[in-house]
């Protein structure tokens, strides 16, 4: 698993990880030294005569000029406390390095996964579930760093401390070391055998249930009207309940597993101490009493390390599903947004579609086959045909979202490619059947993607006027600064379409594409929008308009109609 995790971590984070590894080792060493500092106090408690009999303590006593044993013990205790405080402060500072590394990596992974999904294009996004993609970006990346990387760091740190502690105990008292192994190793081995496969399975089950629940919630609110009118909410709640029951059940089992390290290790500790108490009573040996003290101190410090290792290992197994999700995105290299480009692809003559064919990856047949026609600048071109014939696919090709399987699209003789797609998209406007609107102000939706400080208000007013939104804006409580709700929930269908038109006008598009823009509107609103489009064309003879519509009446103002 370590090599798999390492393959996910970007190269620049691997280099930084070397320093983090050093801080983990240093923290383990400090914790070890902190424990060792307690041994003089333990030694003085168990054997007060050692102040004068022990060669090291007697030298300290003499050189310190102490006049009483009490003063010496108080001084030793004060030094130990001061050291522990200093050690804890240094530990905290070192931990900040690890913490900052973890959260910087989370930011990197989440941002790059977000960009990677977008850069895969419309075809990938349509095949995927937006709720699942959203959860991967927002939740899975955090779970990976918090539930996989952090536990791995914990295991490494505590394992180093355990090795140092155990090695010291083995050197000082092999008997205490063997007793520690005899007490804790069977409990740890039994724990790993019992929960290893369960942790993997529970993590996978919870992930799938979370994805389904996330999808249910998003689809419920997105499709409120249809769900309410179809009386389908109970069914959605049933699905939600089923998924959340799975999550709760698995979560409860995992919570139980999380308590097992404490139970297993405490039972082992109790058995070891009980054995030493029995031996101490049976043999009345001072050596056994000292062994008891050494074992007690060592065990009490080893106990949290063993418990932390076991708990971190369980978390790592439970959340290992995140590794495959992030690895699939291949975000080892930084993902970047397309470079800012405001240049337009020159369009003065015509758009040529020549022998255009397109086939989806999962299809055996062409959706479009050897299609050829020409759109001249200033023309109003209608496209119609039965459902499923490929009208929207043609639009997605003309918009640059899809690449042709064969054939070409040329703008003034220049072939539309991935390299000049951004320039072409800067030249066009798009109004769909369901205009995309953000939960923001009217101004932000018309000047989509532009910082409010950079908006040209004169162009905004012109776009509002041309799209015939003036009266609507005047009626809003805050004018163009009024919020319009999620997906334009506070607007009518016609108002949404007019905002789409205003957006294209503000952009200064040379070509306007209308994809079934009026199909969901009532007849009166549809006629009004069509009249606005026709008036828009008459006001600018160089503006090219391409319209998809089912009804031929909606294409009456077009110069020509292409039937697919």
Describe this structure in words.
With 564 residues, the chain is of the alpha/beta class. It has two domains: 2-329, Up-down Bundle (ABC transporter transmembrane region fold); 350-563, Rossmann fold. Helix content is 65%, strand content 9%. Strands 6-7-8-3-9 form a five-stranded parallel β-sheet, sandwiched between helices. It is elongated, with a radius of gyration of 35 Å. The two termini are 53 Å apart. The mean pLDDT is 78.
- What helical percentage do the residues reach? 55-70%
Mean pLDDT: 78
Element pattern in H and E: HHHHHHHHHHHHHEEEHEEHEHHHHEHEE
Shape: elongated
- End-to-end separation: 53 Å
Strand order of the largest sheet: 6-7-8-3-9
Level-2 CATH architecture of the largest domain: Up-down Bundle
Strand proportion, as a percent range, falls in: 5-15%
Q: In CATH, what is the homologous superfamily of the largest domain?
A: ABC transporter type 1, transmembrane domain
Major sheet summary line:
5 strands, parallel
Q: What structural class results from the helix and strand content?
A: alpha/beta
Name of the CATH class of the largest domain: Mainly Alpha
CATH topology of the largest domain: ABC transporter transmembrane region fold
The number of distinct helices, counting runs of at least 4 residues, comes to 20
Radius of gyration: 35 Å
Which stretches are low in confidence, meaning pLDDT under 50 for 5 or more residues running? none
Number of strands: 9
């Amino acid at each position: 698993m370590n090599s798999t995790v390492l393959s996910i971590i970007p190269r620049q984070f691997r280099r930084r990880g070397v320093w983090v590894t050093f801080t983990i080792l240093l923290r383990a060493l400090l914790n070890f030294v902190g424990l060792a500092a307690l041994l003089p106090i333990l030694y003085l408690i168990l054997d007060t005569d050692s102040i004068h009999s022990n060669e090291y303590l007697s030298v300290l006593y003499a050189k310190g000029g102490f006049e009483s044993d009490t003063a010496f013990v108080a001084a030793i205790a004060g030094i130990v406390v001061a050291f522990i405080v200093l050690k804890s402060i240094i530990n905290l500072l070192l931990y900040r390095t690890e913490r900052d590394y973890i959260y910087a990596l989370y930011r990197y992974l989440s941002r790059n996964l977000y960009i990677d999904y977008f850069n895969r294009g419309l075809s990938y996004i349509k095949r995927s579930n937006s709720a699942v993609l959203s959860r991967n970006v927002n939740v899975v990346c955090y779970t990976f760093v918090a539930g996989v990387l952090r536990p791995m760091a914990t295991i490494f740190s505590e394992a180093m401390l355990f090795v140092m502690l155990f090695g010291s105990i083995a050197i000082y008292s092999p008997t205490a070391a063997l007793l520690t192994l005899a007490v804790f190793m069977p409990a740890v081995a039994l724990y790993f055998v019992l929960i290893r496969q369960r942790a993997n399975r529970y993590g996978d089950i919870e992930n799938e249930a979370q994805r389904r629940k996330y999808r249910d919630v998003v689809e419920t609110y997105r499709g409120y009207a249809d769900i309410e009118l179809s009386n389908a909410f109970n069914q959605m709640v049933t699905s939600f309940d089923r998924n959340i029951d799975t999550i709760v059940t698995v979560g409860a089992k995992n919570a139980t597993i999380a308590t097992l390290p404490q139970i297993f290790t405490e039972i082992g500790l109790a058995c070891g101490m009980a054995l030493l108490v029995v031996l101490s009573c049976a043999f009345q040996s001072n050596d056994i009493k000292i062994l008891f003290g050494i074992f007690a101190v060592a065990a009490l410090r080893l106990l949290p390390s063993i418990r932390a290792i076991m708990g971190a290992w369980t978390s790592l197994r439970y959340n290992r599903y995140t590794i495959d999700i992030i690895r699939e995105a291949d975000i080892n290299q930084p993902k970047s947004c397309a470079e800012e480009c405001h240049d337009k692809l020159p369009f003065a003559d015509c758009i040529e579609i020549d022998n255009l064919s397109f086939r989806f990856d999962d299809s055996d047949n062409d959706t479009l086959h050897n299609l050829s026609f020409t759109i001249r600048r200033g023309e109003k071109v209608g496209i119609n045909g039965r459902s499923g014939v490929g009208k929207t696919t043609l639009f997605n090709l003309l918009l640059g979202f899809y690449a042709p399987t064969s054939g070409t699209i040329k703008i003034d003789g220049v072939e539309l490619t991935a390299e000049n797609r951004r320039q072409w998209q800067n030249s066009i406007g798009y109004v769909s059947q369901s205009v995309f609107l953000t939960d923001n102000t009217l101004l932000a939706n018309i000047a989509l993607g532009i910082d409010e400080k950079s908006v040209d208000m004169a162009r905004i007013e012109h776009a509002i006027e041309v799209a015939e939104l003036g009266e609507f804006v005047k009626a809003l409580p805050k004018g163009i600064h009024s919020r319009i709700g999620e997906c334009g929930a506070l607007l009518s269908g016609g108002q949404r379409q007019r905002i789409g038109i205003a957006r294209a006008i503000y952009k200064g598009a040379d070509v306007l594409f209308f994809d079934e823009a009026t199909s969901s509107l009532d007849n009166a609103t549809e006629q009004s929008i069509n009249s606005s489009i026709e008036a828009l064309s008459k006001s600018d003879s160089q503006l090219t308009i391409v319209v998809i519509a089912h009804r031929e009446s909606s294409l009456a103002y077009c110069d020509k109609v292409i039937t697919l």
